[in-house]
Design brief:
- This protein has helices at about 10-30, 30-35, 55-65, 80-90, 95-100, 110-120, 125-140, 150-155, 170-180, 185-205, 225-245, and strands at about 45-50, 75-80, 145, 160-165, 220.
- The chain has about 250 residues and is of the alpha/beta class.
- The protein has a single domain, classed as Rossmann fold.
- Helix 3 packs across helix 11 (about 225-245).
Length: about 250
């Protein structure tokens, strides 16, 4: 069997591939469409620290926004767990492969070799398919997209409102311990820190950015201090203010 020489893929290579895909997406939106869509919030992304609410906020937002729509208009839809299902069905991918993107960091070279000999899509291909689905949802509009680095994937698309939900670590540990029925608070603490790291690693590996960077969001809201209801109201009010600014 002849020697196989494969160039080892680096993080820089990954980012270059993703950036090339972004340029294709951006050119497809068109300048005229972008200017028109700047006037309204067409989609919302919600990033959150582990232990903070995501779906409950998204669900409340969608319910209020839909109650204000005229009959026959497309409804707002929340994509959280359903997002993974959509990615899998749209691209015929295994749920295990898609979910593994933010659960573990594979060595890039071994990941590439595995794809060559098993036919399993490499992590970069899975990510690009996931990003393609997220971008397509945002372009369609009237969606609340939760997690999966959607804030970064859609950052250059007009009409987005990007929200980050945070809270003190100990508060989140208590929330997770109660919700997931973890009796040992030390174990809950380790679990929360691991999940935070996994989510951050996903964005860093594939997009070279930190989800903790406040500059990428329109709003950063503290759930412990505000609670879910006030957070929802602040997001709705921000949508109104952005629309007024665009019109003026």
């Amino acid at each position: 069997m002849p020697d196989i020489h494969v160039k080892e893929l680096t993080t820089k290579d990954r980012l270059k591939q993703v950036e090339e895909q972004f340029k294709i997406w951006e050119s497809a939106t068109g300048k005229e469409r972008r200017e028109k869509e700047e006037r309204e919030t067409r989609f919302i992304t919600i990033s959150r620290e582990y232990g903070c609410a995501g779906f409950r906020i998204g669900d409340s937002l969608a319910a209020i926004l839909n109650s204000e729509l005229k009959e026959g208009k497309p409804q707002w839809t929340v994509f959280d767990r359903k997002l993974v299902d959509l990615i899998c069905s749209s691209h015929k991918l295994s749920r295990v492969l898609v979910e593994s993107l933010d659960r573990q960091r594979k060595h890039v070279f071994s990941d590439y070799i595995t794809g060559m000999f098993t036919g399993e899509p490499s992590s970069i291909k899975i990510f690009k398919k996931s990003a393609d689905t997220i971008y397509g949802l945002a372009v369609r509009g009237r969606v609340v997209i939760i997690g999966r680095a959607s804030v970064l994937i859609t950052s250059k698309l007009p009409g987005g409102l990007h929200v980050r939900i945070v809270a003190p670590l100990q508060w989140r540990v208590a929330q997770v311990a109660a919700y997931e029925k973890i009796e040992n608070l030390n174990e809950a603490h380790k679990h929360v820190e691991k999940m935070d790291a996994d989510r951050g690693r996903f964005a860093q590996d594939f997009l070279g950015r930190s989800l903790k960077d406040p500059d990428i969001y329109d709003l950063v809201l503290n759930q412990e201090k505000l609670g879910i209801e006030r957070i929802v109201q602040l997001i709705l009010r921000t949508m109104e203010l952005k629309s007024q600014k665009a019109e003026s």
